[in-house]
Amino acid sequence: MQFQLLLSATFAAGLTGGSVGGLTAGHSESCAPDRAGRDETTVRRLSDSLHLIHRYGANMVVFTGPDGVLKVDGGFLDAAPEIELALAELTDEPVRYLINTHWHKDHTGANAYWGLAGATVIAHENVRMRMLGSGDKEGEKMLFHDPPMDPEGLPTVTFRERLELTFNGEPVLIEHYAFGHTDGDSVVYFPGQNVVVMGDLYRQDNFPYIELRSGARPAGMLRAIEAVLRRVPADVTVVPGHGAVGTRADLREFYDMLWDANEQIKRAVTAGQDLIALYNNKMLGEYEDRWADGGQRNRVRGFLQIMWYCYAPKSARGLGEDRAPAVKPEF
What's the CATH code of the domain at 27? Predict the structure, then answer.
């Protein structure tokens, strides 16, 4: 098995170990999947070697073959035993590598479980930083694992821009896209299988969550999705962090919605509308049924809060203008 690190990747084997003006800008329980009523583990075949495992609203992908299992995202800790049973139906090989697409606990909660079983954890360097735990000021703790991640669950392979490995005889490419969902998002490409795993840079069933306090912005998410769209073929299989598996066309629909929402809110805030006006005027009402988890207004409200704070003047307790492209790219 060949293991190759590219560009500014670093190998660290053996390492152990708020609120903005009323807006909760860290990853709160309200942003995580609702585990009530979602207790069935499901497995879907993506290809001969790739399978999607879904539990508690979160998607995980496993790549099986002669080298063992490479797993993308760990899921919640309490789901790990059943996920292990589901894996046993696919292969007798152990999990060799666990890739975290970002630091949130619905994707990393079971890291130590898989680490104790022998898996090497791989993630962007900012993911490791947030797992170590920190933040004493009000609102900062929600930007870090609390309590800190157990040493067995910490990434021991970290990278800054991209990392490539050969596993089960095929290339696996992990690319960092800065400041879209968090400050440590990675997209995992399986070119030999024609599959791309997006993490929470893409949600198939909901408006995106943008973690403002860690530096994420709508412009960062748009840039990330644009980069993926330019890279993948028309017939690629796209795996979101949450929701049903989709296509490049589905990802483009998400991009177009986010672009339009960003432009609508930017214009409204520039014209002087406050957050309450955006909500009362049913801003983004045309997207409720498709992108608000079946028209849930609380989903719209949360997204409007995030977007408004990106464009409201700092005097209004906003963050100032986001640097989204002035003209929508053609691609």
Answer: 3.60.15.10
